[in-house]
Design goal:
44% of the residues are buried. A hairpin with a 3-residue loop joins β1 and β2. The chain folds into 2 domains: 137 residues, ATPase, nucleotide binding domain (Nucleotidyltransferase, domain 5); 164 residues, Nucleotidyltransferase, domain 5. By secondary structure, the protein is of the alpha/beta class. It is globular, with a radius of gyration of 20 Å. It contains 9 helices and 13 strands. The longest helix is centred in the C-terminal third of the chain and has 25 residues. The chain has a 5-stranded mixed β-sheet with strand order 3-2-1-4-8. It has a 5-stranded mixed β-sheet with strand order 11-10-9-12-13, sandwiched between helices. The chain binds zinc ion. Zinc ion binds next to loops.
């Protein structure tokens, strides 16, 4: 069986708190999954052994053999597709440069590939989601951070060193809010979960009202549903920041569509309606009203696993 015809793949979504591992078929169904809490691990050897064991178990539980598995794809923070290494990820216990694809590959009889989580998200949209027929599109993941994966001319953009396509760290406001990357004014600081809460707090201060204690994106979305004016305006302000950020990316890349992914998109029309307006306002006139802004077509629970599996099923 050639790799292109193998019916299954393993997707591994490695995050700061959990690793989710899933068995995925060619239609993008996650058939079975396992979860490893990261708090169990202090060193990489034990972690890799457990990931490999979980994969062997997933394959055995379905009475499959590895000859039916195309490979294992890993989506990880700061994952470098070219080297198969995680490089200096700040939210993992494994520090420095970790050759995860090589280490896991030594314990599995199938190919292992690795990339960063946002690139994996774009691959998932291409292989299983709404971008199947598209050669040019951008996926933006809105969550703790703001990640992005870019397809241009039918290929994922890695850049010369594997770290290309970081729309979240393009500078929107020079000298603005301090970003986790050490610079100031990145798009991420205005449109990530913490950035949105900061937008809300700044707005409350400007309006001279007391902010709701413990406000988060879910609260802001529910408060907007209740007609809370500050919450509604927070989404409009957030949409303005995001609209400029993705219009800049679209001006460079001329994508067919921009997909948004991550928990924040549950704000629904509170975010999408003002975003489409702001985005179009900031586009070059010949691009206006030609680029769709869409929610991901992948199931939220499986998106990260599907993206990782897509690495070996493309
Ligand atoms: Zn940054």
């Amino acid at each position: 069986m050639s790799n292109e015809t193998k019916p299954y793949a393993i997707g591994i979504d490695m995050g700061g708190t959990n690793t989710d591992i899933g068995l995925v078929d060619r239609d993008g169904h996650c058939l079975a999954r396992k979860n490893l809490p990261m708090c169990r691990y202090t060193e990489i050897g034990a972690y890799v052994a457990d990931v490999a064991a979980a994969i062997h178990q997933l394959v055995a539980d379905r009475n499959l053999t590895f000859s039916e598995i195309a490979g294992a794809g890993i989506g990880a923070p700061n994952g470098n597709f070219f080297t198969g290494c995680i490089e200096h990820a700040s939210n993992l216990v494994f520090t420095g440069v970790v050759p995860l694809a090589k280490l896991l590959g030594e314990q599995l009889p199938v190919p292992v590939a690795l990339t960063n989580d946002a690139n994996a998200a774009a691959l998932g949209e291409k292989v299983y989601g709404g971008a199947r027929e598209m050669d040019d599109f951008i996926v933006i993941t809105l969550g703790t951070g703001v990640g992005s994966g870019i397809f241009a001319d039918g290929k994922l953009v890695y850049g010369h060193d594997g770290f290309g396509g970081e729309v979240g760290h393009t500078i929107l406001h020079p000298g603005g809010r301090l970003c986790t990357c050490g610079r100031r004014g990145c798009l991420e600081e205005y449109t990530s979960a913490r950035g949105i809460v900061q937008n809300y707090n700044d707005l409350c201060k400007e309006m001279g009202v007391e902010p709701h204690e413990g406000a988060d994106c879910q609260w802001l979305s529910e408060a907007a549903d209740r007609g809370d004016e500050t919450a509604i305006r927070t989404w409009v302000i957030t949409a303005e920041h995001l609209g400029i950020g993705i219009a800049n990316a679209a001006t460079t890349l001329a994508p067919e569509a921009i997909f948004l992914m991550g928990g924040i998109i549950q704000a629904g029309h509170w975010l999408f309606d003002p975003l489409r307006i702001a985005f179009n306002e900031h586009l070059l006139c010949m691009q206006r009203d030609k680029i769709a802004i869409l929610p991901t077509q992948l199931n939220a629970n499986d998106a990260a696993i599907l993206g990782a599996a897509a690495l070996v099923q493309l």
